[in-house]
Specification:
Layout: H1 3-13, H2 23-32, E1 44-48, H3 57-66, H4 68-73, E2 75-79, H5 88-100, H6 113-120, E3 125-129, H7 133-145, E4 156-158, H8 168-175, E5 180-183, E6 198-201, H9 206-221, H10 225-239, H11 242-269
Helix pairs in contact: 1-7, 2-7, 3-5, 3-9, 5-6, 8-10
Length: 270
Amino acid sequence: MSAIERSRDDAMLGADADGAPARAFVELDELLAALPAERRGLPLVISVGRLARVKGMASLAHVWAADPALRRRANLLVVGGDLDAPSPEERDQLARIAEAVPGADPVAEGADPRGIAAALAPHGLLLAGHRGNDTVTRWLAAVRYGRPGLAAVGGAYACASIKEEFGVALLEAMSMGLPVVAPASGGPATYVEDGVTGLLVDTADPAALARGVARALDIAAGPGAEAAADRARDMVARTFTIQAMAGTLSRVYRDVAAADDRTLWELSAS
């Protein structure tokens, strides 16, 4: 059983295989508990990555905060960055994220990042900081399957990067069956089926990004959600698992070797 499958099963049970509460879910539930009662039970839009300008976390926060319908519909969970000892760039991005939320307590320059996170949570924006891959995998499962009394089923994954050459986090989300929002330029366009397994958008266009997130939530909540999830998982398993990529490379090497053999024969015969 793969780590993704284990996490999917864990999310549905709320526990590890031995029956003990999974620490990752305990940590997620603690974050979700900071939401006010009226925001508990909404689905999550999750984004995972560095707190860097090119990753677009602040842009995503601004888009979500500026769209009342989107804010009413889902909470935003941002995973990434060092909240204890942030770099100058991380501090800048945290300040930009804080500025996005109307009604949040004003954030002075150099404010404590944990204080920023605490001020944003009541408004539905959760800053989780960096988390290990095992935790992120379980959280992706929880975004899809929900957390009892805290988050609804049917969340989505959003990548607001200026560009994404490949997008490992996107593939991890798709392997969990989450509909994704991804940049239309770069690697994601080669594996995201626009309108089926996710949305390809111009992430520099706030309106397009907002529409993409809303449509991803539509996919997650729609009658074709399970079929779309199966299609996304099948694509990842068929193309991007270690076994699949090893098979592809093996074929490439065989083709190159065969071509070299033909070239040597042609040279020797000439």
